[in-house]
């Protein structure tokens, strides 16, 4: 098969100007580790470690176990690829699905604010599965992670918030391109082959915000995207032709998922590689991603930070609270109407999460158990929490994920905090020590303290590994 076929919108004998798809394909094919700046290199290590920790901890959660059972029932999953936190080995596609589901399953995975997307839970599982299978080096793995984040984050940023209001979950829809690009990087595709993989991946984009109504399907969105993106890369390697220019075509991704069909914008004119902006120290999207300090939806984190600051700095306790008024941007404020009958919805619920922060002085995994969700004192606090759209926060979004929080105490005090950007962001980031502590908190209960520390030490210097297989195997049980 000749993948270097003319662009479908080109006139006979001519090639149209490169559009967003070709720009992304050219970037991926040309990317070399030597060209990655130091801020992005360190971010790649940090986000790899953070996502692998979430994968290890999430391996035992219910959605992942359902996936394992389904794979067994289907007769699939036999292979040699390890999945962090699991004992069985799998084929690479099943490993990517399970790894993505694990990574996202506990709401501890990273994200990219301008695109409202969780890139790590899609890119890392696909990349580590293929890197193990193809005996890639640590440097090759990190390069693939950087490339995959670039694809996932930039496409999500170019789609947001239009895609959200259409009901799509960018982690599943934009994420599939991140996995495809990570696979293309590890397979050393040229630009034509990368564009072909993107053309196939576009048909596999999926994920709806219906999870706000309940159920556990949200956990599986990154798993689906990781598997299907990896499949798109492998199909390209084995000759399946796909449409070019798939992001900007009239029937393409941006029109279907982000409203290009309404004429509000021209998909072909998107400057994709600048979508979402950059960190001051890096031109790579991965350097502008956040890492979660709280085990819940990122849209709620600014509110959590404000309440915790009041507790620590003003001496407020849960029993002192008369009312909490939270103003935020519309997408965040929508979480004020989410209930907490299940762990999935509880982690998305502004009232329950803020009540939990007031009761526990934290928001951690153990705070979403059935017992905590039924705790009378916590439930009483939820009735005192009001969430609304704040015009200033809405005007700042998506450039900021801010919150205005006013807490009124029973003795009549009125306390206020404005949080422009929650803790863990690229400009207010967790330290490397904080990343290590989070990893060990998640991995040590599964792998054992000594084993978790040993693999963490190797992950911080992963680019020196000639093959990543032994390091990845050490993350499995």
UniProtKB/TrEMBL annotation:
Residues 294-460 form the MmgE/PrpD C-terminal domain. It holds the Pfam family MmgE_PrpD_N. GO terms for molecular function: lyase activity. Residues 23-262 form the MmgE/PrpD N-terminal domain. SUPFAM superfamilies: 2-methylcitrate dehydratase PrpD (SSF103378). PANTHER family: 2-METHYLCITRATE DEHYDRATASE, 2-METHYLCITRATE DEHYDRATASE-RELATED. Belongs to the PrpD family. This is 2-methylcitrate dehydratase.
